[in-house]
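On clarity, I found the account of how folds are encoded harder to follow than it need be. Since the whole study asks how a given chain folds, the encoding of that fold should be made plain. The format is easy to grasp once an entry is in front of the reader. For illustration, here is how one protein appears when written out as sequence plus structure tokens.
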Amino acid sequence: MGMAGSAQGGGSGRRRHGRRPVMAEINVTPMVDVMLVLLIIFMVSAPLLTVGVPIDLPQTQAKSLDQDKEPLAISVDDKGKVFLQNTEIALDELVPKLKAVTDARGGFDERIYVRGDKKVDYGTVMRVMGRLSAAGFKRVALVTEVEQGS
């Protein structure tokens, strides 16, 4: 019995003093690994998020315009389909939907960008611009690419 008593009393004291102290350092290696993986994922996926309607824009030497927020873009693809932002829309529905969007964003003084594929019929782009002008939108800009070469 004496042995059991000394094992309980003495042993628990030794265990308590025999423990290693609590480690106050944080192992950052797993966190760095996760951050690097996330960085790679975002670097690969970021260019995919900015893709809109695929259009082959004409080239020009004009300077680019400054823009504060995401612009309102109307796109006309090579088949003559009209898109408001990235959503296909009928030409008859363009003005009412555009008015609703501009009213929600702050009125008619907002610039509207018209993107037309260089293979699209000139008349299709002019029909879109004519409807915008007739609806009272005065700040309409045509989007082009910077001219390459000489």
Summary: The chain has a mean pLDDT of 76.
